[in-house]
Amino acid sequence: MMHLTRRGFLGTAGTLAILSQTRVSAQEKITLRVTAAPSLVADMYKEMAAAFEASHPDIAVQIDATLRDYDGLVEATLRDNLTGQIADVSIQGNNKARIYADRGLVEPLDDLFEAEIASPQTTLSPSVASIGRIGGKIYGLGLSVSVPLLFFNADLVRKAGGNPANPPTDWEGVLELARKMNDPATDTLGAYYAYDQSGAWFWIALIGSQSAPMMNAAETEIGFGGPEGLRALQVLKAFGEAGQSAVDMPRDQVRQLFAAGKLGILADSSSSLGIFEKQAAGRFEVGTWPFPRAGATPRLPAGGAMGIVFAKDPERRKAAWNFLKFAAGAEGQTIIAKSSGYMVANSLVASNPDMLGRFFAERPVMKPVVDALPILDGWYAFPGENNGKIIKTITDDMRSVILLEAEPEAVLASMTADVKALLPR
């Protein structure tokens, strides 16, 4: 039979108390499930989770980044919701938040963002919120972005009498230069507009860059049925006339043409910059110009990824928000920039010399991308169930104008009517 002395009893009691306290602490520690895509950058998100845990010992983060692309993640997220296993946070494509907002699966983050942005210590910027804004409310924070950009072959620009350091400020200047570079005799194309980007991204860019919305604030009227839509189609017609109508091809093939030195100007996503520089190294200089803009308040759609909070329990929601603001703030954005090569969404972090300002200053080709951050909007998705059909309609109409098969005026009328017919009544 065991006999305990007073000292032994107190020692045992102390041990039990410590063990009990440890169990309580373990119970209080929150483990967040975070899903992310694409799987190509899974290691980057795991690095971010580890860095977050180091400064938040009360929160553990389990990263699931096994899915190849954003569309696959949407399907998995909707399945998880049906089985009650939806993630606390999910890092999705910038045009996906509406899918969840329209289904009532996410709540706005405005209260949390406004409280954070009021703090003098915050490293968040308005740009991360504008990317996740739908109908005036914030449903996610931007983490990484790609922006519409003009890539150019500096050698061909100089040969045509242009100055790589003095970019055209409007489409007329871009296309005038393109016509000078276009030379069928040497299989050189002056310019190409990558109209077939997913989600009608480059149609949204043409409209927003003219300071016009895709739809009005109440989403009852189309915003491109007037002069801005006509102007956009006229620009596309001019690309066709400058040579693109003769060489319509898939995006990958266009990018190969540019990398081969046979394309003067390419309107494409900034995400292609690293690939172009690598492929052109030692053969020609790749440069970048801003996407032309007009009007008082031009906006551009942000490609890339945003973080969305699905957690509903107040404590889990708070922990999820802490992870999301870490990812969108200085430390998380630095990990994204240096571990993946993605462009960050946070304009403050990108421009501040004490954060990533010097990092991007060493790469002048990134300047048009950094400068675009303050005017980025979310990647617009139409309301209702027919977004995919509307996107296909718009893309097909863009193609018909570029191929010079139809005139802008007629296409604008049919596009407007077709889109209206597909919107919720």
Helical segment tally? 19
Q: Low-confidence parts, pLDDT < 50 over ≥5 residues?
A: 1-14, 16-26
Q: For the largest sheet, list the strands in their spatial order.
A: 2-1-3-12-6-13
Instruction: Quote the distance from N terminus to C terminus.
Output: 82 Å
* Oligomeric nature of the chains: single chain
Radius of gyration: 25 Å
Instruction: Give the helix proportion (percent range).
Output: 40-55%
Helices and strands: which structural class?
alpha/beta
Instruction: Let me know the largest β-sheet.
Output: 6 strands, mixed
Morphology call:
globular
On the 0 to 100 scale, the average pLDDT is: 92
Strand content: 15-25%
Question: Would you count the extended β strands for me?
Answer: 14
What does the secondary structure layout of this molecule look like, with pairings?
Elements: H1 6-28, E1 30-36, H2 42-55, E2 59-64, H3 70-82, E3 89-93, H4 97-102, H5 110-117, H6 126-131, E4 133-134, E5 137-138, E6 141-146, E7 148-153, H7 154-159, H8 171-181, E8 189-193, H9 201-208, H10 227-241, H11 251-259, E9 263-269, H12 273-280, E10 286-290, E11 300-301, E12 303-309, H13 314-328, H14 330-340, E13 343-344, H15 347-351, H16 353-361, H17 367-372, E14 376-377, H18 387-402, H19 408-422
Parallel strand pairs: 1-2, 1-3, 8-9, 11-14
Antiparallel strand pairs: 3-12, 4-5, 6-12, 6-13, 7-9, 7-10
Helix pairs in contact: 2-14, 10-19, 13-14, 18-19
